[in-house]
Amino acid sequence: MVVTIGPELEAALKEQACRQGVGPEILALNILREHFPVAPPPQPRDEWERGLLEAARDWGVSLPDSALSSEGLYE
């Protein structure tokens, strides 16, 4: 991902990063991590949940309902 920022924001970011003694990229990442925390993966509470989570796979995106209609299957 590339984020394009304007010159004013870039200058402010560089100034604040210099004050903190870090690079502007590190400061930007730290700020993003503070504002958008990533939730840890769910922890199973018992054997049944453990088996369910082990069986789960990330297969990508879901197909829309229209793709599963008889017309959508042949498009």
Structure characterization notes:
With 75 residues, the chain is mostly helical. The chain has one domain. 52% of the residues lie in helices and 0% in strands. The chain has helices spanning 7-20, 24-35, 47-55, 70-73.
Structural class: mainly alpha
Number of helices: 4
| Secondary structure: number of strands | 0
Give the termini distance in whole angstroms. Answer: 32 Å
**Whole-number average pLDDT?**
88
Count of separate structural domains: 1
In terms of DSSP E residues, the strand content is under 5%
Radius of gyration: 22 Å
Main sheet summary: none
Shape: flat
**Which residues sit in consecutive blocks of at least 5 with pLDDT less than 50?**
none
**Helix-strand pattern:** HHHH
